[in-house]
Protein backbone atom coordinates (compact mmCIF):
# COMPACT_ATOMS: atom_id res chain seq x y z
CA UNK A 1 0.00 0.00 0.00
CA UNK A 2 1.43 3.38 -0.99
CA UNK A 3 2.13 6.14 1.50
CA UNK A 4 -0.83 8.25 0.36
CA UNK A 5 -3.20 5.29 0.67
CA UNK A 6 -1.86 4.51 4.14
CA UNK A 7 -2.33 8.14 5.19
CA UNK A 8 -5.90 8.03 3.91
CA UNK A 9 -6.67 4.91 5.96
CA UNK A 10 -5.19 6.56 9.06
CA UNK A 11 -7.27 9.70 8.42
CA UNK A 12 -10.42 7.61 7.98
CA UNK A 13 -9.88 5.74 11.25
CA UNK A 14 -9.17 9.02 13.02
CA UNK A 15 -12.38 10.47 11.64
CA UNK A 16 -14.40 7.50 12.88
CA UNK A 17 -12.71 7.62 16.29
CA UNK A 18 -13.54 11.32 16.57
CA UNK A 19 -17.29 10.77 16.31
CA UNK A 20 -19.01 11.66 19.59
CA UNK A 21 -22.50 10.08 19.61
CA UNK A 22 -25.21 12.17 21.22
CA UNK A 23 -27.18 9.16 22.46
CA UNK A 24 -25.93 7.38 25.59
CA UNK A 25 -27.02 4.05 24.09
CA UNK A 26 -24.79 4.64 21.08
CA UNK A 27 -21.82 5.38 23.34
CA UNK A 28 -22.45 2.18 25.26
CA UNK A 29 -22.78 0.19 22.02
CA UNK A 30 -19.54 1.63 20.66
CA UNK A 31 -17.77 0.85 23.94
CA UNK A 32 -19.06 -2.71 23.70
CA UNK A 33 -17.62 -3.03 20.20
CA UNK A 34 -14.27 -1.66 21.38
CA UNK A 35 -14.21 -4.05 24.35
CA UNK A 36 -14.14 -6.99 21.93
CA UNK A 37 -10.63 -6.04 20.78
CA UNK A 38 -7.24 -5.39 22.25
CA UNK A 39 -6.10 -1.92 23.23
CA UNK A 40 -4.67 -0.16 20.19
CA UNK A 41 -1.76 2.24 20.07
CA UNK A 42 -3.48 4.68 17.68
CA UNK A 43 -3.81 8.09 19.27
CA UNK A 44 -7.39 8.84 18.12
CA UNK A 45 -8.62 5.41 19.21
CA UNK A 46 -6.86 5.71 22.57
CA UNK A 47 -8.52 9.09 23.15
CA UNK A 48 -11.87 7.54 22.19
CA UNK A 49 -11.38 4.81 24.78
CA UNK A 50 -10.59 7.39 27.48
CA UNK A 51 -13.64 9.43 26.51
CA UNK A 52 -15.98 6.44 26.59
CA UNK A 53 -14.54 5.32 29.91
CA UNK A 54 -15.05 8.80 31.35
CA UNK A 55 -18.63 8.90 30.09
CA UNK A 56 -19.29 5.50 31.62
CA UNK A 57 -17.87 6.54 34.96
CA UNK A 58 -19.87 9.77 34.86
CA UNK A 59 -23.07 7.81 34.27
CA UNK A 60 -22.23 5.54 37.20
CA UNK A 61 -21.17 8.43 39.40
CA UNK A 62 -17.68 7.02 39.89
CA UNK A 63 -14.26 8.51 39.48
CA UNK A 64 -12.07 8.41 36.43
CA UNK A 65 -9.46 5.75 35.72
CA UNK A 66 -6.29 6.42 33.76
CA UNK A 67 -6.25 2.92 32.31
CA UNK A 68 -7.19 3.16 28.58
CA UNK A 69 -9.68 0.33 28.65
CA UNK A 70 -13.43 0.06 28.30
CA UNK A 71 -13.84 -2.98 30.46
CA UNK A 72 -13.97 -6.70 29.80
CA UNK A 73 -15.52 -8.05 26.59
CA UNK A 74 -19.27 -7.66 26.63
CA UNK A 75 -22.00 -9.24 24.57
CA UNK A 76 -24.05 -6.97 22.34
CA UNK A 77 -27.78 -7.52 21.93
CA UNK A 78 -27.90 -7.19 18.15
CA UNK A 79 -31.50 -8.35 17.70
CA UNK A 80 -32.85 -6.11 20.45
CA UNK A 81 -30.93 -2.96 19.45
CA UNK A 82 -32.04 -0.22 17.03
CA UNK A 83 -30.16 0.52 13.83
CA UNK A 84 -28.13 3.44 15.23
CA UNK A 85 -26.85 1.31 18.10
CA UNK A 86 -25.90 -1.48 15.70
CA UNK A 87 -23.86 0.95 13.57
CA UNK A 88 -22.18 2.36 16.69
CA UNK A 89 -21.25 -1.16 17.79
CA UNK A 90 -19.86 -1.95 14.31
CA UNK A 91 -17.86 1.29 14.39
CA UNK A 92 -16.26 0.30 17.69
CA UNK A 93 -15.64 -3.24 16.41
CA UNK A 94 -14.00 -1.90 13.24
CA UNK A 95 -11.69 0.39 15.24
CA UNK A 96 -10.75 -2.52 17.53
CA UNK A 97 -10.71 -5.48 15.14
CA UNK A 98 -10.96 -4.10 11.62
CA UNK A 99 -8.39 -3.19 8.99
CA UNK A 100 -8.68 -1.48 5.62
CA UNK A 101 -6.25 -2.00 2.74
CA UNK A 102 -6.07 -0.09 -0.54
CA UNK A 103 -3.08 -1.93 -1.99
CA UNK A 104 -2.87 -2.18 -5.77
CA UNK A 105 -5.99 -0.11 -6.29
CA UNK A 106 -8.11 -2.83 -4.68
CA UNK A 107 -10.17 -2.13 -1.58
CA UNK A 108 -10.10 -4.84 1.10
CA UNK A 109 -11.68 -4.65 4.56
CA UNK A 110 -11.64 -7.39 7.15
CA UNK A 111 -12.44 -8.09 10.80
CA UNK A 112 -10.15 -10.45 12.72
CA UNK A 113 -12.18 -12.01 15.56
CA UNK A 114 -12.35 -15.19 17.59
CA UNK A 115 -13.09 -18.27 15.47
CA UNK A 116 -16.52 -18.75 17.03
CA UNK A 117 -17.50 -15.13 16.36
CA UNK A 118 -16.75 -15.06 12.61
CA UNK A 119 -19.89 -16.80 11.34
CA UNK A 120 -22.30 -14.87 13.65
CA UNK A 121 -20.68 -11.56 12.66
CA UNK A 122 -21.00 -12.39 8.95
CA UNK A 123 -24.67 -13.29 9.54
CA UNK A 124 -25.29 -9.97 11.33
CA UNK A 125 -23.66 -8.02 8.51
CA UNK A 126 -25.71 -9.88 5.91
CA UNK A 127 -28.88 -9.09 7.85
CA UNK A 128 -27.88 -5.40 7.76
CA UNK A 129 -27.57 -5.51 3.96
CA UNK A 130 -23.77 -5.85 4.01
CA UNK A 131 -23.08 -9.46 2.95
CA UNK A 132 -19.58 -10.64 3.88
CA UNK A 133 -17.60 -13.86 3.71
CA UNK A 134 -16.10 -15.58 6.75
CA UNK A 135 -13.34 -18.15 7.17
CA UNK A 136 -10.75 -19.42 9.65
CA UNK A 137 -7.19 -18.24 9.03
CA UNK A 138 -4.33 -19.43 11.21
CA UNK A 139 -6.67 -20.19 14.09
CA UNK A 140 -8.52 -16.85 13.92
CA UNK A 141 -11.86 -15.95 12.44
CA UNK A 142 -11.76 -13.52 9.51
CA UNK A 143 -14.78 -11.70 8.07
CA UNK A 144 -13.95 -10.10 4.74
CA UNK A 145 -15.24 -7.63 2.18
CA UNK A 146 -13.55 -7.21 -1.19
CA UNK A 147 -16.32 -5.27 -2.92
CA UNK A 148 -15.57 -1.57 -3.02
CA UNK A 149 -19.25 -0.60 -3.13
CA UNK A 150 -20.08 -2.68 -0.06
CA UNK A 151 -17.08 -1.29 1.83
CA UNK A 152 -18.07 2.26 0.94
CA UNK A 153 -21.64 1.63 2.10
CA UNK A 154 -20.41 0.19 5.39
CA UNK A 155 -18.05 3.10 6.09
CA UNK A 156 -20.78 5.59 5.25
CA UNK A 157 -23.25 3.91 7.60
CA UNK A 158 -20.84 3.90 10.54
CA UNK A 159 -20.18 7.63 10.13
CA UNK A 160 -17.27 8.17 7.69
CA UNK A 161 -17.53 11.45 5.79
CA UNK A 162 -14.70 13.48 4.24
CA UNK A 163 -12.23 10.59 4.25
CA UNK A 164 -14.76 8.36 2.54
CA UNK A 165 -15.32 11.00 -0.16
CA UNK A 166 -11.58 11.08 -0.77
CA UNK A 167 -11.49 7.29 -0.91
CA UNK A 168 -14.36 7.18 -3.41
CA UNK A 169 -12.73 9.92 -5.50
CA UNK A 170 -9.56 7.85 -5.70
CA UNK A 171 -11.54 4.76 -6.68
CA UNK A 172 -13.33 6.67 -9.44
CA UNK A 173 -10.01 8.09 -10.65
CA UNK A 174 -8.45 4.63 -10.73
CA UNK A 175 -11.45 3.21 -12.59
CA UNK A 176 -11.32 6.02 -15.16
CA UNK A 177 -7.58 5.52 -15.67
CA UNK A 178 -8.12 1.80 -16.09
CA UNK A 179 -10.89 2.33 -18.65
CA UNK A 180 -8.83 4.93 -20.49
CA UNK A 181 -5.82 2.63 -20.62
CA UNK A 182 -7.95 -0.22 -21.98
CA UNK A 183 -9.42 2.05 -24.68
CA UNK A 184 -5.98 3.38 -25.63
CA UNK A 185 -4.52 -0.12 -25.77
CA UNK A 186 -7.40 -1.35 -27.92
CA UNK A 187 -7.12 1.62 -30.28
CA UNK A 188 -3.36 1.19 -30.48
CA UNK A 189 -3.74 -2.50 -31.33
CA UNK A 190 -6.37 -1.72 -33.99
CA UNK A 191 -4.14 0.98 -35.46
CA UNK A 192 -1.18 -1.38 -35.61
CA UNK A 193 -3.29 -4.01 -37.36
CA UNK A 194 -4.63 -1.42 -39.80
CA UNK A 195 -1.14 -0.10 -40.59
CA UNK A 196 0.17 -3.64 -41.08
CA UNK A 197 -2.74 -4.58 -43.38
CA UNK A 198 -2.36 -1.37 -45.40
CA UNK A 199 1.35 -2.06 -45.83
CA UNK A 200 0.70 -5.58 -47.13
CA UNK A 201 -1.99 -4.31 -49.47
CA UNK A 202 0.25 -1.56 -50.89
CA UNK A 203 3.04 -4.08 -51.49
CA UNK A 204 0.61 -6.43 -53.27
CA UNK A 205 -0.75 -3.59 -55.42
CA UNK A 206 2.77 -2.49 -56.40
CA UNK A 207 3.76 -6.05 -57.31
CA UNK A 208 0.63 -6.69 -59.41
CA UNK A 209 0.99 -3.30 -61.09
CA UNK A 210 4.61 -3.99 -62.03
CA UNK A 211 3.73 -7.36 -63.57
CA UNK A 212 0.73 -5.95 -65.42
CA UNK A 213 -1.63 -8.32 -63.66
CA UNK A 214 -3.60 -5.58 -61.90
CA UNK A 215 -4.93 -4.37 -65.25
CA UNK A 216 -6.45 -7.83 -65.83
CA UNK A 217 -8.49 -7.72 -62.61
CA UNK A 218 -12.19 -6.79 -62.49
CA UNK A 219 -13.17 -3.16 -62.40
CA UNK A 220 -14.08 -3.18 -58.70
CA UNK A 221 -10.73 -4.67 -57.75
CA UNK A 222 -8.87 -2.12 -59.82
CA UNK A 223 -10.93 0.74 -58.33
CA UNK A 224 -10.25 -0.41 -54.79
CA UNK A 225 -6.53 -0.79 -55.54
CA UNK A 226 -6.36 2.72 -56.97
CA UNK A 227 -8.21 4.18 -53.96
CA UNK A 228 -5.92 2.35 -51.55
CA UNK A 229 -2.84 3.59 -53.40
CA UNK A 230 -4.07 7.19 -53.24
CA UNK A 231 -5.03 7.08 -49.53
CA UNK A 232 -3.01 4.39 -47.72
CA UNK A 233 -4.25 5.62 -44.33
CA UNK A 234 -7.96 5.20 -45.12
CA UNK A 235 -10.00 2.58 -43.32
CA UNK A 236 -12.20 0.05 -45.09
CA UNK A 237 -15.24 2.16 -44.24
CA UNK A 238 -13.58 5.26 -45.71
CA UNK A 239 -12.73 3.43 -48.94
CA UNK A 240 -16.25 2.01 -49.18
CA UNK A 241 -17.81 5.44 -48.73
CA UNK A 242 -15.46 6.98 -51.27
CA UNK A 243 -16.17 4.34 -53.92
CA UNK A 244 -19.87 3.91 -53.16
CA UNK A 245 -19.40 0.22 -52.36
CA UNK A 246 -20.22 -2.02 -49.46
CA UNK A 247 -17.49 -2.42 -46.87
CA UNK A 248 -17.49 -6.18 -47.46
CA UNK A 249 -16.87 -5.66 -51.19
CA UNK A 250 -13.84 -3.48 -50.44
CA UNK A 251 -12.52 -6.04 -47.98
CA UNK A 252 -12.93 -8.91 -50.47
CA UNK A 253 -11.15 -6.92 -53.19
CA UNK A 254 -8.16 -6.18 -50.95
CA UNK A 255 -8.00 -9.78 -49.76
CA UNK A 256 -8.01 -10.91 -53.38
CA UNK A 257 -5.07 -8.65 -54.17
CA UNK A 258 -3.10 -10.03 -51.23
CA UNK A 259 -3.86 -13.63 -52.20
CA UNK A 260 -2.80 -13.07 -55.81
CA UNK A 261 0.48 -11.49 -54.75
CA UNK A 262 1.27 -14.52 -52.60
CA UNK A 263 0.85 -16.99 -55.50
CA UNK A 264 3.91 -18.13 -57.49
CA UNK A 265 4.60 -15.95 -60.58
CA UNK A 266 3.80 -18.82 -62.98
CA UNK A 267 0.50 -19.73 -61.31
CA UNK A 268 -2.40 -19.41 -63.79
CA UNK A 269 -4.65 -18.01 -61.07
CA UNK A 270 -2.64 -14.79 -61.20
CA UNK A 271 -4.13 -14.12 -64.67
CA UNK A 272 -7.83 -14.78 -64.29
CA UNK A 273 -8.68 -12.87 -67.46
CA UNK A 274 -6.62 -15.18 -69.71
CA UNK A 275 -7.87 -18.31 -67.99
CA UNK A 276 -11.48 -17.27 -68.23
CA UNK A 277 -11.02 -16.35 -71.91
CA UNK A 278 -9.68 -19.84 -72.63
CA UNK A 279 -12.52 -21.37 -70.67
CA UNK A 280 -15.05 -19.31 -72.60
CA UNK A 281 -13.50 -20.48 -75.88
CA UNK A 282 -13.76 -24.09 -74.76
CA UNK A 283 -17.40 -23.68 -73.81
CA UNK A 284 -18.17 -22.03 -77.13
CA UNK A 285 -16.54 -24.91 -79.01
CA UNK A 286 -18.52 -27.41 -77.01
CA UNK A 287 -21.70 -25.49 -77.79
CA UNK A 288 -20.91 -25.47 -81.50
CA UNK A 289 -20.55 -29.26 -81.44
CA UNK A 290 -24.02 -29.47 -79.90
CA UNK A 291 -22.85 -30.63 -76.47
CA UNK A 292 -25.36 -29.46 -73.83
CA UNK A 293 -23.95 -26.71 -71.65
CA UNK A 294 -26.43 -26.70 -68.81
CA UNK A 295 -29.67 -25.93 -70.65
CA UNK A 296 -29.35 -27.64 -73.97
CA UNK A 297 -29.72 -25.99 -77.41
CA UNK A 298 -33.14 -25.70 -78.96
CA UNK A 299 -33.66 -26.37 -82.66
CA UNK A 300 -32.45 -23.47 -84.80
CA UNK A 301 -30.06 -22.14 -82.09
CA UNK A 302 -26.35 -22.53 -81.45
CA UNK A 303 -24.91 -23.59 -78.17
CA UNK A 304 -24.54 -19.89 -77.26
CA UNK A 305 -28.32 -19.33 -77.48
CA UNK A 306 -28.28 -17.19 -80.66
CA UNK A 307 -30.30 -18.19 -83.82
CA UNK A 308 -28.40 -19.34 -86.86
CA UNK A 309 -27.96 -16.83 -89.66
Describe the structure.
The chain is of the alpha+beta class and about 300 residues long. The chain has two domains: about 160 residues, Homing endonucleases (Endonuclease I-creI, Roll), CATH 3.10.28.10; about 80 residues, no CATH class. It contains eleven helices and four strands; from the N terminus they run ααααββαββαααααα. The chain has a four-stranded antiparallel sheet. A hairpin with a 2-residue loop joins strand 3 and strand 4. The chain is rod-shaped, with a radius of gyration of 40 Å. The N and C termini lie far apart (about 95 Å). The C terminus is likely disordered.
Outline of the structure:
The chain is of the alpha+beta class and 309 residues long. It contains eleven helices and four strands.
Keywords:
alpha+beta; 11 helices; Endonuclease I-creI; rod-shaped; 4-stranded antiparallel β-sheet; 4 strands; 60% helix; 309 residues; 7% strand
Reconstruct the topology from this structure.
Blueprint: H1 3-17, H2 24-35, H3 43-60, H4 83-97, E1 98-101, E2 108-113, H5 115-127, E3 133-137, E4 140-145, H6 148-157, H7 162-210, H8 219-230, H9 236-243, H10 247-262, H11 272-288
Antiparallel strand pairs: 1-2, 2-4, 3-4
Q: How do the SSEs run, as a string of H and E?
A: HHHHEEHEEHHHHHH
CATH class value of the largest domain = Alpha Beta
Report the sheet-strand fraction.
5-15%
Gross CATH architecture of the largest domain = Roll
Instruction: Describe the main β-sheet briefly.
Output: 4 strands, antiparallel
Gyration radius, in Å: 40 Å
Number of strands: 4
Distance between the termini: 95 Å
What is the 3D shape?
A: rod-shaped
Number of helices: 11
Helix content: 55-70%
Structural class: alpha+beta
Nearest-integer average pLDDT: 80
Q: Count structural domains.
A: 2
- Look up the CATH topology of the largest domain: Endonuclease I-creI
pLDDT under 50 segments (min length 5)? 64-73, 275-309
Q: What is the CATH H-level superfamily of the largest domain?
A: Homing endonucleases
Q: Which strands sit side by side, in order, in the main sheet?
A: 1-2-4-3
Amino acid sequence: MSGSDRDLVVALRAELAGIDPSRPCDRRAEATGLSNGRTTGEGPVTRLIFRLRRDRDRERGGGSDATPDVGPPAAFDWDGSPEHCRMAWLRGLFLARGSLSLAGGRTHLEFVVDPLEAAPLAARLSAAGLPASSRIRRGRGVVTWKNGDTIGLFLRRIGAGASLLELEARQVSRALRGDLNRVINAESANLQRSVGAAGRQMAAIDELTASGELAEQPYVVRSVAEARRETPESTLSDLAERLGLHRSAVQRALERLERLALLPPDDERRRPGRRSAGARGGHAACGARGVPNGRGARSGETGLGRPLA
